[in-house]
Automatic annotation (TrEMBL):
SUPFAM superfamilies: Ribonuclease H-like (SSF53098). The lineage of its organism: Eukaryota, Viridiplantae, Streptophyta, Embryophyta, Tracheophyta. This is RNase H type-1 domain-containing protein. InterPro entries: RNase_H-like (IPR053151), RNase_H-like_dom_plant (IPR044730), RNaseH-like_sf (IPR012337), RNaseH_domain (IPR002156), RNaseH_sf (IPR036397), RVT-Znf (IPR026960). Residues 226-354 form the RNase H type-1 domain. It comes from the Eukaryota. It comes from Erythroxylum novogranatense.
Length: 360
């Protein structure tokens, strides 16, 4: 019997009965199904098999990729040098960064000096002895519930999961590409966690909810503004979270005539920050040209919600600056468009990767 497979299937049935792969199993677990196991009993089986699974079930704001990584870590399925040595896949079980230590899961994720570089700034000094001393499975479980003195604004379980995922990603990069000079930055991790938390917040508090509907085919194209108005289309682009980023935008009249456009290299930031920069530069450009009726079209729903919803919080100074621009003595209509109807500014944003820092 493949125990791991049955545990994953059971957990999916308990926690995600609406998934397409589970819809063929009737009932709330399904007294009429071939499994014929009550939900509470099956959940207890999963919990007893691995207590970390219970903690993972509450980690809803972590992406599925990170949750899967945590599951594999808790079940000792990752191919560390220690595990590879046991399977006769390598000649040595030691860590490539610490030649005197066996590369176990605990070493990769907690005890290696590279891991400590990430954890030490996050863990309060008086908590470090406890943090570094427990056995590995207990350590995983406790960190999904205990912040160990962490004082940051983001969720500790979320940050913990992301750090583990990045440590494993960086470890593999060093193994398969020893010449890589990619920096391992805690600041990159914190920025990535902030983006995840922001998306989760707006999904539940700002983004409009609507019942799921079947897919349909629609024709998408650029739509002109009303007579007497100008259309400001903007777009941002980023190669990572965060990585090199650009912004682009252009103004067109009601007949589709190009008035003016811009491209900007905005340095390093995430995709939604790049989108905000595009809006910021575009509004300044429209104001400088003296237009008073602006149809602002953006292909990023989150940015539309950030700048136009009165109920959304001001999350950074760039959002605040855009809202001040919108409050000036002019009329700006903000709307979402599909990316396929925004190809001109998408090209401008991609073209701007070759530009020096600043706006052109």
């Amino acid at each position: 019997m493949n125990i791991a497979h049955h545990m994953k299937l059971g957990w999916s049935l308990v926690k995600e009965p609406g998934k397409l792969c589970n819809q063929g199993v009737p009932g709330p677990l399904l007294s009429h199904s071939t499994l014929a196991i009550p939900a509470a009993q099956l959940e207890k089986i999963v919990r007893d098999y691995n207590p970390v699974a219970t903690s993972l079930s509450g980690l809803l704001i972590v992406s599925y990729r990170i949750r899967t990584h945590l599951w594999l870590t808790a079940h000792a399925q990752l191919m560390t040098n220690d595990r590879r040595f046991q399977l006769s896949l390598t000649e040595s079980p030691v860590c490539t960064d610490c030649p005197t230590h066996v590369e176990s899961l605990a070493h990769v994720f907690r005890d290696c000096w590279r891991a400590r570089q990430m954890w030490d700034p996050l863990i309060a000094g008086r908590q470090r002895l406890t943090f570094y001393s427990s056995n590995f499975l207990s350590w995983l479980e406790s960190n999904l519930a205990n912040a160990y003195g962490f004082q940051g604004s983001c969720s500790w379980p979320l940050l913990f999961g992301v750090v583990l995922s990045k440590l494993w990603e960086w470890r593999n990069e060093r193994c398969f590409n020893p010449s890589s000079t990619k920096p391992h930055s805690l600041q990159d991790i914190l920025s990535y966690v902030q983006d995840i938390g922001l998306a989760y917040q707006f999904y539940h508090t700002v983004a409009p909810s609507s019942p799921h509907q079947g897919s349909q085919v629609i024709e998408v194209s650029w739509s002109p503004p009303r007579e007497g108005w100008v259309n400001l289309a903007t777009d941002g682009s980023s190669c990572g979270n965060p990585r090199a980023a650009t912004a682009g935008g252009l103004l067109r009249d009601a007949s589709g005539r190009w008035i003016v456009g811009f491209g900007a290299n905005v340095g390093f930031c995430s995709a939604w920050h790049a989108e905000l920069w595009a809006v910021f530069y575009g509004l300044h450009l429209a104001w400088a040209f003296g237009y008073s009726s602006i149809d602002l079209s953006i292909d990023y729903v989150l940015v539309v919600s950030l700048i136009s919803s009165a109920s959304s919080p001001v999350l950074n100074t760039l959002v605040s600056a855009i809202r001040k621009l919108l409050s000036r003595n002019w009329e700006v209509r903000v709307r979402h468009i599909y990316r396929e109807g925004n190809r001109c500014v998408d090209w401008l944003a991609n073209y701007s990767y070759g530009l020096p820092l600043g706006v052109r």
